Amino acid sequence: MEDTSMATKLSAPRGPYIAVITNRTTNVVIRGTMLFSVGVFLALVLNLLQVQRNVTLFPPDVLSSVFSSAWWVPPCCGSASALIGLLYPCIDHCLGEPHKLKREWSSVMRCVAVFVGINHASAKVDFANNVQLSLTLAALSIGLWWTFDRSRSGFGLGVGIALLATLVTQLLVYNGVFQYTSPDFLYIRSWLPCIFFAGVITIGNIGRQLALYECKVVQEKIHQD
Questions:
Q1: Whether residue 146 has pLDDT greater than 70
Q2: CA nearest 103: which of 221, 192, 223, 204?
Q3: How far apart are CA 150 and CA 140, in angstroms?
Q4: Which positions, given as ranges, span the membrane (predicted)?
């Protein structure tokens, strides 16, 4: 009787993403912490790249902070990363649309590399004009989504969050928190939504992989038991 009860608990439907730790809250906190750390790291590296290229300008006192980044940038990016990374697998589950592409960490790392490459192109490559740069980055960002995501939920969330992040950036620039050296679209650079979109897709893939990895670990434990 006890074995039957245990088997029922193990086979109970818990969605496509199953926690390694029985306490779901603890599991979410662990994944959120990892995603926060990834967001902070990417924010420091990518923002340093932009500052070195003089794409963004912070006040003089801000430049004395770690890696020439405003103190609030890494925590904000880390928090957004945690939210997005946890939201993606949750949306997949709610829509009943599990990710169909083959998932593995090597694919996620390639996605991160492409994202960093897109940022590098926006800061280092000299294009004839901003329109050409924006169209190129838009094509690269959509190509990143097609290669590593291809889900409707991923595309929709990416576009929505990118537009929201662009609006927030406009408000920050308008209030003098920082500025772009050559703004061409409402105080900011026109290619910024493409960067945000690629970043959302990248963090979403990391969040999905973390959730899927936990699912595989639990399944292995079940087989071992």
A1: yes
A2: 204
A3: 14
A4: 28-49, 69-88, 131-148, 155-174, 186-206
Task: Encode pLDDT of 179-223 as tens digits.
Answer: 776 666 666 777 889 999 999 999 999 998 888 765 544 444 444
Give the integer Cα–Cα distance in Å for 139 and 153.
19
Give the angle 124-130-135 at the CA atoms, nearest 5°. Answer: 90
Contact 178, 172 (CB under 8 A): yes
- Spatial contact of 78 and 200, defined as CB atoms under 8 Å apart: no
* Run of H or E including 56: strand 56-57
Structure tokens at 167: 């609006």
Residue 202 has phi, psi (to 5 degrees) of -65, -50
Question: Concatenated DSSP letters for 64-119?
Answer: GSGGG--TTHHHHHHHHHHHHHHHHHHHHHHHT----S---HHHHHHHHHHHHHHH
Cα separations (Å) of 79 from 74, 87, 128?
8, 12, 36
Measured distance CA(131)–CA(117) in Å, rounded:
19
- Classify each residue of 159-179 as buried b or exposed e, where b means 16 or more C-beta atoms within 10 Å of its C-beta: eebbeebbeebbebbeeeebe
The more confidently predicted of residues 177 and 6 is 177
Q: Which is it for the CA torsion 172, 175, 178, 184, positive or negative?
A: positive
